[in-house]
Amino acid sequence: QVQLVESGGGLVQAGGSLMLACAASGRTFRSYAMGWFRQAPGKERESIASISTTGGHTYYADSVKGRFTVSRDSTKNTVYLQMNSLKPEDTAVYYCAADATLSGTNRLLLHTEYDYWGRGTQVTVSS
User: Fold this and answer.
1) CB-based contact 98:114 (threshold 8 Å)
2) pLDDT digits (tens, 9 = 90+) for 92-113
3) What are phi and psi of 14, to 5 degrees?
4) 27/14 Cα distance (integer angstroms)
5) Beta strand pairing call for 10-13 and 121-126
6) Are strands 58-60 and 4-7 parallel, antiparallel or unpaired?
7) 3-state secondary structure (DSSP) of residue 69
């Protein structure tokens, strides 16, 4: 089992940037595919980025492609989400998630395919 703790959320103006971090506990971090999904008020959860176990492959939702970058540092058991050119519609709670069973390869993971996720961090983008 793995525990995930997100950090780095906050309030930012449109066009600004934020970097989210997700610290993972446990020795099996390297064997998990990781990712991020978000949920805005009144909306369904949206998977936005995933990264392979080695970090060599990344996948993005169209809504964030070209603006967000997911990365991982296995020496620190941490996953990052660099968010640039933020828009008001990016406002949501952002969750870090781990796929222990490697549900899918070579594609963006669905939020339902993750086995573990954190409590989330709020990102608010003002216009």
Assistant:
1) yes
2) 999 999 999 887 778 999 999 9
3) -55, 135
4) 38
5) parallel
6) unpaired
7) strand
